[in-house]
Amino acid sequence: MEEEPKSESEEAQPEVQTEIPEVGRPGRVKRFIKECARVIHITKKPSKEEYWSAVKVTGIGIAIIGALGFIIFLLKQLLF
Description:
Elements: H1 8-12, H2 25-42, H3 48-79
């Protein structure tokens, strides 16, 4: 049987690895533990400045969502 010609997008994409290493539950658990250790290793504690900016942004987001919910509640009470 004759192979179909590849399109440009198929030629541009690298070959996908078809072999799955460490198949099975023990392999998956090992891989998960390795990935968790890598994430913990590369993360760092935020500085006070980074922490407070995250707290401010989160607080503002919560306040906006709460205000929208309150406005919707008031409109519902007034109109219905």
